[in-house]
Amino acid sequence: MTTRHPETTGRQLGRRSWAEPWKIKMVEPLRITTPEERERALAQAGYNTFLLRSEDVYIDLLTDSGTSAMSDRQWAGMMLGDEAYAGSRNFYALEEAVREYYGYRHVLPTHQGRGAEHLISQVAIKPGQYVPGNMYFTTTREHQERAGGTFVDVIIDEAHDPASEHPFKGNIDLAKLADLIARAGADQIAYVSLAGTVNMAGGQPVAMANVRAVRELCDQHGIKVFLDATRMVENAFFIAEREPGYEGRPVAEILREFCSYTDGAWMSAKKDSLVNIGGWLALNDETLFEEASNLVIVFEGLHTYGGLAGRDMQALAIGIAESVSDDHIRSRIGQIRYLGDLLDGAGIPFVKPVGGHAIFLDARRFYPHLEQDQFPAQTLAAELYLDSGIRSMERGIVSAGRNPKTGDHNRPKLELTRLTIPRRVYTQAHMDIVAEAVEAVYASRESAKGLVMTFEPRYLRFFQARFDRL
Q1: Nearest to 367 by CA among 385, 381, 346, 355
Q2: CA distance 447 to 79
Q3: Which residues have CB under 8 Å from 404's CB, separation 6+?
Q4: In sequence order, which residues have a C-beta less than 8 Å from that of residue 13 and are 6 or more positions away?
Q5: Can you tell me the distance from the alpha carbon of 205 to that of 174, in angstroms, rounded to the nearest whole number?
């Protein structure tokens, strides 16, 4: 039976509730902590939610990376693991799935997404080259810079405005890209780094018309386009919903077309593909693939397992097929929109329109009395945990790191706290609790004092930095 879209059902019959297209077979008990326990745990963690123990967390919205629930078919697939060091049958199942649903010729498994980011950066970037992209992502930029590249943000201006309702805030600004090519020269552009959706902009999608135009521009200059396909299934859903000519088309069909305008992709399969570990790099270029295939042996493992057990590759192959189910992705986005509607009704400031994997609270508007150097987004994550045991994460000045030349903080326009929803894990009741907790923190916003950083690691500081209250 085909599930009716909630909006269509509402128009025909009045308001009708919707439910997730799965049922629960196993439960994991959650521990509810006291305010005193949370205060102690957060202080021990240096007011960094990444350093909290999961046993001290009630509802964990830190990330959707590897935190989703696998299906019965995926767990059954784990029992089919072929743990041969070379030529595992599970690799060929994964290769077939990537080719079928994403359309690329050559596939290399990696232990997770940043392994694939490392490989593509090493084989496709020459020192001194520029890497234009639609807003940075933390680990992606780190690998690009370690390879000698310089990231250049060419996303449209609307992406930096949390209140903008632009339907495709992840789009590349073609004028910005063309200007960089003209100034630097095409040979100094390593490749275009295109993410769908754009995490740091609030999970915002890229339009099919935009990727097609980027492809045409790059073809004129012989520049490759590589895709961060981590949440590309969610991006395809937004295209089906918002872009003329794609209404009613299957998400799987849209995904395949979008990928056809790119030369390859890297994937953190721990997101869209519903597994707890894994990733891949896929390329159409034979020469680049041979280089990456050789390099994966140095850093990951043999090219037919790349740091993954056979059972993990089998679960991933099954997860890829499940991820493109229209019922699944409609429910996935619907749950996030449900939370967004609750927060919007309470006047909570967050990035609009609602993105694909999270609600991004606007910490600047939460705490207009805090300077950015007082880490408002980190403060908001801390206050939310103290209120209710809900773990979120900072996506602002801490995540942006420092300018390697000046040593000063990079100062992004967006100062956000991310409520990231794992797939197939929490219920509507959990979303109600999250909304009530955010409302409570917002009501007491004027009392927030901010934080000071007491320890700063050299790389990707948001993972391990420590803070104290001002």
Answers
A1: 381
A2: 53
A3: 145
A4: none
A5: 16
420 forms beta bridges with 358
pLDDT digits (tens, 9 = 90+) for 224-248: 999 999 999 999 999 999 999 999 9
Q: List all residues 6 or more positions away from 298 whose beta carbon is below 8 Å from its beta carbon.
A: none
Are residues 50 and 100 part of one domain? no
Mean pLDDT confidence for 211-226: 98
- Give Cα 397 distance to the centre of its chain: 18
pLDDT at 33 over 90: yes
| E strand segments, 217-372 | 225-228, 264-268, 279-283, 358-362
Residue type, 71: S
Q: Which residues are catalytic?
A: 85, 137-138, 228, 271, 395, 462
Nearest to 130 by CA among 139, 119, 141, 138: 141
Q: pLDDT tens digits, residue range 391-415?
A: 999 999 999 999 988 999 999 999 9
Tell me which of 293, 323, 353 is where a domain ends.
323
Length of the chain, please? 470
Domain final residue pick, 298, 323, 348: 323
Q: How far apart are CA 145 and CA 121, in angstroms?
A: 9
Rounded distance between C-alpha atoms, residue 64 and residue 237, angstroms: 18
Which SS3 state, helix, strand or coil, does residue 56 take?
helix
Determine whether 332 is exposed, middle or buried from the number of CB atoms within 10 Å of its CB (0-12, 13-18, 19+): buried
In this structure, are 312 and 405 located in the same domain?
no
Name 141's Cβ contacts closer than 8 Å, sequence gap at least 6.
151
- Please give the Cα distance from 239 to 250 (Å, whole number): 10
Residue 232 and residue 259 in contact, taking contact as beta carbons nearer than 8 Å: yes
Alpha-carbon span 390 to 49, nearest angstrom: 10
The C-alpha atoms of residue 103 and residue 324 are separated, in whole angstroms, by: 14
> Residue 77 belongs to what domain range?
72-323
Tally the domains of the chain. 2
d(CA 265, CA 356): 19
Residues 250-269 pLDDT 10s: 999 999 999 999 999 999 99
For 161-209, write each residue's pLDDT tens digit: 999 999 999 999 999 999 999 999 999 999 999 999 999 999 999 999 9
Evaluate whether residue 251 is within a structural domain. yes
What is residue 10's predicted lDDT score, i.e. its pLDDT? Answer: 45
